[in-house]
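thought: user wants a sequence for this fold. calling inverse folding tool.
action: design(structure=
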C-alpha cells in the first residue's frame, strides 16, 4: 500500500460511523453482512449506510458481491493488513519491537 492509498484509507476510517461499520464487517469475517443487517445493528438509516459503505469501498477497505437478491459486504482483510504493515514498517527506530507484525486474520 502506498502513501496516497494509506491517506485515503485512514481518511475513510476517521469518521465514527464508518469506523464502527468497518469493525462490524471485520467481526463478520468472510461471511460478510447485508446492508439491512448492518443498518439494524448500528442503528443507521439506510441512506446514511449507503454513503458510508461507498466511502469505505472507494478507499479499498470494503468489497461487495451480489448474492441473489442481496448484496453482501465484506471487509478487505488484505487491505487492512497492508495498512497496518505500512503503519508499522519502520517502527521503533530500527530497534526490535515488542509486538511482531502478523496477518490480522488467518482464516478470512
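)
observation: tool returned 108 residues.
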Amino acid at each position: 500500500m502506498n502513501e496516497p492509498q494509506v491517506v485515503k484509507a485512514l481518511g475513510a476510517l476517521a469518521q465514527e460511523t464508518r469506523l464502527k461499520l468497518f469493525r462490524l464487517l471485520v467481526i463478520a469475517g468472510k461471511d460478510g453482512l447485508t446492508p439491512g443487517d448492518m443498518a439494524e445493528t448500528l442503528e443507521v438509516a439506510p441512506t446514511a449506510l449507503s454513503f458510508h459503505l461507498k466511502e469505505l469501498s472507494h478507499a479499498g477497505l470494503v468489497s461487495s458481491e451480489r448474492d441473489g437478491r442481496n448484496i453482501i459486504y465484506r471487509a478487505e482483510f488484505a487491505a487492512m493488513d497492508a495498512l497496518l504493515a505500512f503503519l508499522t514498517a519502520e517502527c521503533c527506530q530500527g530497534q526490535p519491537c515488542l509486538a511482531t507484525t502478523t496477518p490480522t486474520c488467518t482464516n478470512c
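thought: summarizing for user.
answer: Here is the designed sequence. The two ends are 19 Å apart (CA to CA).
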